[in-house]
Amino acid sequence: MPRGLTRLGLSAKLLLLTVLFVMLAEILIYLPSVANFRRNWLNDRLAAAQVAVLVLEGAPDERLPEESEARLLMGVGARAIAARVGGARRLLSLDSMPPTVARKVDLRDASWMTALKEAVEILVAPPHDMPIRVIGQAMGGADFVEIVIDEAPLRRAMLVFSGNILLISLLISVLTAGLVYLALNWMIVGPIRQLAANVMEFEADPENPHRIIEPSRRADEIGEAERALARMQMTLAGELRTKKHLAELGLAVSKVNHDLRNMLASAQLMSDQLVDTRDAKIRRFAPRLIATLGRAIEFCQATLAYGRAAEATPLLREIALRQLVAEQAEMLGLPENKQLSFVNEVPAELIARCDPDQMARVLLNLMRNSVQALAREGGESDSQAMLTVKAQQLDGSLHLRVSDNGPGVPQRAKANLFQAFRGSVTPGGTGLGLAIAAELVRLHGGMIELEPSETGAVFKVTLPGRRPNGN
């Protein structure tokens, strides 16, 4: 079956359900109607019998010629008519003996449930030749009036009435179903079809902005669905364009990765010769330069096609955190920076259990962000620009804070602060630094967050301590 097609559409289902519900309602209405028709039919016969009794009372000697009695009974449609007037019973019958009846119907005190039951019995029971006895309330001075009639005419009349009801019900059902179908198709089914068609068109080409739905001005749930779908499609289209750009960027990175790794390896070999120099300052920086080049080579080897690194599982070991912070400060040239005051408040005895290479990258990214913000805006209220790194053990976890007194993080950047290409806090930045730092911290089982601060920005890194089993 072709995609998007179903055996029975929503419109057809609604039409069939409407017809079924209307027919069900007509059935519920039919039963009281046919019972009422039966009652009225019998009351009409009783009224005609009452007239016949009055004629009989006005006749001389309360007797009529046999031919007149036959015409009266034929007009009533009864075999016999009886009434009690003033304690005396009047009988009008062509038979000397009253016929045997199949059932007695007393309309004087019959309930609706009894009437419904007897009406259904007449319709469903097989026809028979035996008459029925009907008793009803009389008019004038008579106590009651009763007749003996054949049931077949009543059954035929009820069947004709039922056929008419069925025909009218079908017409009402078709008309009602048609009107409901048109209304629902205009108000619900049509817009839902447009939503479904738009979703399938957008699925075929999600990066095409012309496939994004144009919401209508409806204020109901369908209008809300259209607006929500439009927002989702715009967000998804933007994400897909970003991922496509990243894929293209990753392809370009993968092409240059091999050559870059070779150049870094060559630089590392040449840097090895700096160890033998007589310059004390160069000899002090040479091991760190060689280690940095080694990390860069490993980083290039781990570069993926999407332009970012697939980070390895951290190799945890105990390190002196203060020394690691000092090394990153030297990498950024903070000791020689006269425009910025750097304070390393990490206790010398504090030992951190982490991957030193990955934690060095976390510190470097956080500290570089602060340096860039301070270099661009300076300290708060024209004070001396200051970068501070603190750390402490609290409740078995390591809490590290990198803070500055710069302009702080803009409000617009806080929502996507740790997302690549979306959380940049500097003009023209990519936001990769914070994204990489967040990923490395998560690999350690920790958490990174921006703490509220009245001055500057404070980034807090929380790393878990040792597990109870010593791991």
UniProtKB/TrEMBL annotation:
<dbReference type="GO" id="GO:0004673">
    <property type="term" value="F:protein histidine kinase activity"/>
</dbReference>
<feature type="domain" description="HAMP">
    <location>
        <begin position="186"/>
        <end position="241"/>
    </location>
</feature>
<dbReference type="InterPro" id="IPR004358">
    <property type="entry name" value="Sig_transdc_His_kin-like_C"/>
</dbReference>
<dbReference type="GO" id="GO:0007234">
    <property type="term" value="P:osmosensory signaling via phosphorelay pathway"/>
</dbReference>
<dbReference type="InterPro" id="IPR036890">
    <property type="entry name" value="HATPase_C_sf"/>
</dbReference>
<keyword id="KW-0067">ATP-binding</keyword>
<dbReference type="GO" id="GO:0000156">
    <property type="term" value="F:phosphorelay response regulator activity"/>
</dbReference>
<dbReference type="InterPro" id="IPR003594">
    <property type="entry name" value="HATPase_dom"/>
</dbReference>
<keyword id="KW-0547">Nucleotide-binding</keyword>
<dbReference type="GO" id="GO:0030295">
    <property type="term" value="F:protein kinase activator activity"/>
</dbReference>
<dbReference type="Pfam" id="PF02518">
    <property type="entry name" value="HATPase_c"/>
</dbReference>
<feature type="transmembrane region" description="Helical">
    <location>
        <begin position="165"/>
        <end position="188"/>
    </location>
</feature>
<protein>
    <recommendedName>
        <fullName>histidine kinase</fullName>
        <ecNumber>2.7.13.3</ecNumber>
    </recommendedName>
</protein>
<dbReference type="GO" id="GO:0005524">
    <property type="term" value="F:ATP binding"/>
</dbReference>
<dbReference type="InterPro" id="IPR005467">
    <property type="entry name" value="His_kinase_dom"/>
</dbReference>
<dbReference type="GO" id="GO:0016020">
    <property type="term" value="C:membrane"/>
</dbReference>
<dbReference type="InterPro" id="IPR050351">
    <property type="entry name" value="BphY/WalK/GraS-like"/>
</dbReference>
<feature type="domain" description="Histidine kinase">
    <location>
        <begin position="255"/>
        <end position="467"/>
    </location>
</feature>
<feature type="transmembrane region" description="Helical">
    <location>
        <begin position="12"/>
        <end position="31"/>
    </location>
</feature>
<dbReference type="InterPro" id="IPR003660">
    <property type="entry name" value="HAMP_dom"/>
</dbReference>
<keyword id="KW-0808">Transferase</keyword>
<keyword id="KW-0902">Two-component regulatory system</keyword>
<keyword id="KW-1133">Transmembrane helix</keyword>
<keyword id="KW-0418">Kinase</keyword>
<keyword id="KW-0597">Phosphoprotein</keyword>
<keyword id="KW-0472">Membrane</keyword>
<keyword id="KW-0812">Transmembrane</keyword>
